[in-house]
Write a structure and sequence with these properties.
This protein has 171 residues and is an alpha+beta fold. It is built from five helices and eight strands. The chain has a four-stranded antiparallel sheet, covered by helices on one side.
């Protein structure tokens, strides 16, 4: 083996090692890999600062990790008053919307504490209020969640639809 081929082999090996470490680091920072019972301090050390922090009833706290505006996930990590993780939930799931969203009960701050900052906030002529929108995936299809919040801050309705943004960019 020549010196040049040894350098090339060493460079390829070094690249693979660095790439492997990068993949491991990515796994360590994946919110859905946090297990119930993990301490809040360990969670914060592994994942870094959350995109949102919200108090929970009973003295706990929600650590929220959102991939908005470009991503498709919002993970809520609920920590009890003793500082232990009790649940880890990817909340942008079509199967959950019907049980989670409380039409007529939730206020704007409830929406924020559950889903975090939206992808966008718009208005439509058919509704007196704001429409908050999140992107999510359903079986790898890009979708949108629309939550309608009236001028008093109360959720009045929600619906889902296809995410046509990429199609508009392509045209």
């Amino acid at each position: 083996m020549t010196a040049a081929s040894r350098r090339s082999s060493f460079a390829a090996l070094a690249f693979c090692a660095v790439a492997g470490l990068g993949l491991l680091a990515g796994c360590a920072s994946e919110p859905t890999r946090i297990q119930p019972g993990t301490s809040a301090a360990d969670t914060l050390q592994r994942l870094g600062a959350p995109t949102g922090r919200y108090p929970l009833t009973g003295g706990g706290e929600r650590l929220q990790y959102s991939r908005m505006p470009a991503g498709f996930e919002v993970v809520d990590i609920d920590v009890d008053a003793s500082g232990k993780v009790v649940s880890v939930t990817q909340v942008l799931s079509e199967a959950r919307f019907g049980q989670d969203i409380k039409v007529g009960q939730w206020r704007q701050n409830d929406v924020m504490a559950f889903y975090g900052r939206p992808y966008e906030i718009t208005r439509v002529s058919s509704f007196d209020g704001a429409v908050w929108t999140w992107r999510y995936k359903a079986v790898n299809e890009r979708r949108m969640l629309y939550i309608y919040i009236d001028p008093t801050g109360v959720v009045r309705r929600y619906h889902t639809g296809d995410d046509l943004e990429l199609d508009r960019i392509r045209d």
